[in-house]
Amino acid sequence: MTHKKRVAAVLAALEEKYPHHDKCYLDYTKPYELLFATILSAQCTDARVNLVTADLFAKYPTLEDFAAANQAEMERDVKSTGFYRNKARNLIGAARALLELHGGELPFDIEKLTALPGVGRKTANVVRCHIFDLPSVVVDTHVMRISRRLGFTNNTDPVKIEFDLMKILPKDHWIRYNHQIIAFGRDICKAPKPRCVACFMPDLCPYSELT
Q: Are 101 and 191 contained in the same domain?
């Protein structure tokens, strides 16, 4: 089987197993809240972030509230997500930048998004996917790990992996790939050891212990 056919077969298997996985795992009601939740999600579980943002978004209900927040108090508010000093500083800085540079609206352009404090390509692409419905490859820990196991990339740098995947995945599958891989990673292809015995596509995976 050629590499191109194997990629297509993997996507078909994921589609059959996870046909309805297109949800965002982070809770938000306003576009900028998704940006802030994603900033907080670095090195933190979505479940923990959702617990923190439930109180955080109630305490700071507007962008103006975030922009005017006290740094030390914000650090206490987000401490349980880890790296809380940087995250608190970035939340306040991003709120101010959105107000000062973008009239309080999220930009959709990836260069403008990544110019915001604390926003890398992963965070920017999450926003582009869920807020603007723009085809984007989101490289989180599951996508990094499983794409390497599948032989879709040999890189370890998230940006390089993103561009590798953009080359081999059909554009209309960029968003769905991330959602389905997250589900697959949580169910079966876990870190550090995958449950190959439970995998539905061992014949397509060069990493599989069952091939």
A: no
